[in-house]
Amino acid sequence: MKRTKFFTVIFLSLLTLVIGFSPVVGQTTPPQVIADFESGLPYVVDANQVAFGFIPWGSDFENVVLAARQIVAFGALSLPESETTNSVLMVQYNIKNGGWGGFTHALTDGTTWVSADWTASNALRFWLYGNGTGASIQIDLFDNRNPTVTGDSAERYFFRVTDDYSGWRQFTLPFALFQRRTDFQPNGAPDDGLGLDQVSGYAFGFPGGIGAQVTYVDHVEIVTVDDVSQISTEGGEAGVKPTTDTAANEPQPNDPNEELTEAISIASDQWQLIWSDEFDEAAGTPIDTNSWTCEIGGHGWGNNEHQFYTDRVENVSHTGNGELAIVARQETLPDSQCWYGECQYTSARCITKDKFEFQYGRVEARLKLPYGQGIWPAFWMLGANFPEVGWPNSGEIDIMEFVGKEPNMLYGTVHGPGYSGGSGIGGNIRLDTPLSDDFHTFAVNWDQRGIIWYVDGERFFSLPRSVVGRREWAFDHDFFMLLNLAVGGNWPGYPDDTTQFPQQYLIDYVRVYQLPE
């Protein structure tokens, strides 16, 4: 259940209103250099063991290595029109499928971590050397650290560029195009919009699963542009390099909202029901253990969640009204330990692994969602080969995800090797009323050509398999289903004084259909 939701339609006029600033036209604020690498790469660790300066990070030791490199004028690596010797940041990375890596520039005065006021500018500009991999590179802005939290608590906003060119290219990215990250925010991060008056740094995140790469970054600066509705680029020879990898012969990554024609309508009577749970048992009856296993534990579940999952009827049982209820409670059970100490919440996570697994079909559930800050229900699937190959190589299909702090927003996403966590591929839809107000039907139509997401019969996102490009399409094998209600985590944040308990996640039914052979 790891998120990131992208490829959404952005109405920029609304976005600039929401994040609290608007285009600056005609302003003559001169560019301000943030990093030119002529003085090397500062790196300092303070008394609290917080590092700042240029910091490489990754899922594996030294999968990203940084160095300042001197480039002679008129050489093969010199910047366009450069007539003098120049120092640049060299980034060597080799990130495995499902891994992650990049670097952070935490702004510093040489002794401590500082913030800067960027409100006089409206865009970030930098030079980036392209290798024509066709993969995405993510740029994060660190805005407005929480002064009560030691360490990194800066709110994250992101934008992505595509490495579909060779040589040096200059990017100018208006701040209005950056979106708040929904897959990750540090503990204690504010949620008050991209103010830009307390920027504490930025980061570059590089793709996995494309082998060893060397790229270069230079002349990072903030500038003022007239048009904040689109990025601008200069330089670089367009094109993705050919590779001997068989997968590279597939179409390159494209817009995931491209049309994917239904092999058969989601509403067609040709679908045959092959499995269902209608949850029609008497009130207080435990979940059917012939179909479901409820997992137990409080280790954070990969997302720094705060609940302890149980199989008690207090957390998962039938209502007697044709529904299953998963209930999140604010309580501490004897001897329950969570990753952060004594557990503060209980809930349930139930799966069909080893009891019902299938490949392809129409998967549907009618659900009534809980609500509130830090509340995170989901209906999703994992590859049945998860125990052997691990996540994300197993593949993950999130049919329905919802975070309580966004009451009208529904998300659908996939994760696989090279497109997981913050790089997952997905879409969303904003409903007219909060999803917790009533029952809604959530479904996917899944076959070898791709996946289509629906809410109440309305298609809101489609994912042709061509979108993953040279990366592996991890959805051509058996999957099992999961229903869970998390409390807290990297994406939804954590409960606060406004969060009410208990919270109830109601499941009217879960059904799986397939077409006749």
Helix content: under 10%
Radius of gyration: 24 Å
Mean pLDDT, to the nearest integer, reads 86
Enumerate the spans where pLDDT stays under 50 for 5 or more consecutive residues: 2-27, 243-258
Question: How does this structure look, described?
Answer:
The chain contains 2 helices and 34 strands. With 517 residues, it is mainly beta. The N terminus is likely disordered.
In short:
This protein is an all-beta fold and 517 residues long. The chain is 2% helix and 40% strand. Strand 31 and strand 32 form a beta hairpin.
Task: Give structural attributes.
disordered N terminus, 2 helices, mainly beta, 2% helix, 517 residues, 34 strands
Give the helix/strand layout.
Layout: H1 12-18, E1 32-35, E2 43-45, E3 51-58, E4 64-71, E5 86-93, E6 101-106, E7 123-131, E8 136-143, E9 155-162, E10 165-174, E11 179-180, E12 199-206, E13 213-223, E14 232-234, E15 237-238, E16 272-277, E17 293-294, E18 307-309, E19 316-318, E20 324-330, E21 337-338, E22 341-342, E23 345-347, E24 349-351, E25 361-368, E26 375-383, H2 386-389, E27 396-401, E28 409-415, E29 425-430, E30 440-447, E31 450-455, E32 458-464, E33 479-487, E34 503-514
